[in-house]
Amino acid sequence: MQHLKQPIQEAAQRLYADMVAVRRHLHSQPELSYREHETSRYVQAQLSAAGIPFQNGIADTGIVAVIEGKNPHKVTTALRADMDALPIHEENDVSYKSKDAGIMHACGHDAHTSALLGAARILHSLRHEWEGTVRCIFQPAEEKAPGGASLMIRDGVLQNPTPNSIIGQHVFPMLPAGMVGFRRGRMMASSDEIAISIKGRGGHGAVPQLSIDPIAISAQVVVALQQLVSRIADPIVPSVLTLGKIYSVGGTHNVIPEEVRIEGTFRTMDEKWRFEAHERIRRIVLGVAESMGAKASIDIVVGYPFLVNDDALTERCIQAAIDYLGADKVRDIPIRMTSEDFAYYTHHIPGCFYRLGTADFERGITSQVHTPTFDIDEAALVTGAGLMSWLSLNELATAISAL
Predict the structure, then answer these.
(1) Can you give the pLDDT of all 403 residues of the chain as single tens digits?
(2) E strand or H helix at 392
(3) Are 397 and 71 in contact (CB under 8 A)?
(4) Percentages helix, strand, coil for the chain, rounded to the nearest 5?
(5) Which residue, among 166, 125, 156, 81, has the nearest Cα to 396 in the 3D structure?
(6) 341 assigned to active site
(7) 276 is an active site residue
(8) Which of 24, 190, 346, 353 measures 20 to 30 Å from 217, CA to CA?
(9) What is the phi/psi pair of residue 26, to 5°?
(10) Which of 90, 142, 258, 340 is flagged as catalytic?
(11) CA-CA distance, 45 to 306, in Å (whole number)?
(12) Strand partners, 182
């Protein structure tokens, strides 16, 4: 393995301009979840130009490139990147600004795809120097439930053969380019959407006794639901219940409306508690509404599970990253209550999802993801492509040595 470190690093540097060009092309022509048709065609063209075999049409626009080294059937590992953009209007004044108003690569998936294409080219160029197979997964629809990961798994991306492990990376504007962040075990939360309707009886605001006020009742529902986390959840299990939207259907300053709707999200890091909490939420909403004479309905859309990094795999990746980048470039990072559909993979096979530093504090490249000014220091692409190559080969070598 050590003899491949310098060739990987040199190849990543050589590919820098190509990766920047790919990233800027993708950034300027973003596509929303489940609509990544041109993006998919572009990625396929890049793979074809590099002579890398692939399978397309998985979950419609998904692609799997297969790079075989010597003795390819010995062991398989997987790398993953997502390809979709967000419904955000870009405010950056750059040459590669989104050409589609209201759509933007504000979560760095253009960088993920560019780095994985770079890694695929590196691995392909060195394929006679290592053993096993690396499966490069270009996935659609990370940003929208049910998530492209679940659909690709449904379509067999983790079969024939099942990879020993899977590794993914995500841009991280809280670390400078050249650095990476890891966390063992639970890393990101599950994510479920909540939609509540409380129906009362409308009327004149001056005679509330003749109405059943859904606004007053909704206030009681909101307060009661907050106790789910503060008094019902186990304090050592991370949980968040946020009600981000509340509005009446009709009504004005002197009119009590017929209905109030509430929308929110519930997130946690324990699957058993997750579904128990769903039932608790339903009982609280229905019970409070009924006790005050109203009718309520609730819909909970089950989203992504929590993301868990395999301890042993992540420890190997941390040590390999230190070997490749140096100890000063590798950080431990805390859990986050954001969610990621990479989580689906981690509930099927050992996974490691890490953060790729993308900030340049001196140049002001510090905006957070999902904002209209998000951008990256493109030097991060060199780190991303090289490290993914190194980590995948480290995993193959480790698995083969255990045979």
Answers:
(1) 789 999 999 999 999 999 999 999 999 999 999 999 999 999 999 999 999 999 999 999 999 999 999 999 999 999 999 999 999 999 999 999 999 999 999 999 999 999 999 999 999 999 999 999 999 999 999 999 999 999 999 999 999 999 999 999 999 999 999 999 999 999 999 999 999 999 999 999 999 999 999 999 999 999 999 999 999 999 999 999 999 999 999 889 999 999 999 999 999 999 999 999 999 999 999 999 999 999 999 999 999 999 999 999 999 999 999 999 999 999 999 999 999 999 999 999 999 999 999 999 999 999 999 999 999 999 999 999 999 999 999 999 999 999 8
(2) helix 380-401
(3) no
(4) 40, 30, 35
(5) 166
(6) no
(7) no
(8) 190
(9) -65, -40
(10) 142
(11) 34
(12) 332
Q: Which residues contact 87 (CB under 8 A, 6 or more apart)?
A: 32, 102, 103
Choose, from 68, 82, 84, 341, the residue flagged as catalytic. Answer: 84
- Listed as own residue / partner, the contacts of 314-320 with beta carbons closer than 8 Å and 24 or more positions apart are 314/182, 314/183, 314/184, 314/185, 314/352, 314/354, 315/184, 316/394, 316/395, 316/398, 317/167, 317/182, 317/352, 317/354, 317/391, 317/394, 318/182, 318/184, 320/390, 320/391, 320/394
How deeply is 323 buried, as exposed, middle or buried, from its count of CB atoms within 10 A (0-12, 13-18, 19+)?
middle
CATH fold, domain 2-188+305-401, is Aminopeptidase (3.40.630)
**R_g of the chain, CA atoms, integer Å:** 24
- The residues near 272 (Cβ < 8 Å, ≥ 6 apart) are none
| pTM (predicted TM-score) | 0.94
If DSSP codes are grouped into helix, strand and coil, which group holds residue 308? strand
Q: How many CB atoms lie within 10 A of CB 195?
A: 14
For the 192-301 domain, the top CATH level (class) is: alpha beta
For residue 395, which of 275, 314, 331 has the smallest C-alpha distance?
A: 314
**Residues ≥6 apart with Cβ < 8 Å to 225:** 241, 243, 281, 284, 285
Q: Where in the chain is the domain with CATH 3.40.630.10?
A: 2-188+305-401
Q: What is the rounded CA–CA span in Å between residue 396 and residue 91?
A: 42
To which residue do tokens 């955000």 refer? 88
For the chain, give every residue range classified as CATH 3.30.70.360.
Answer: 192-301
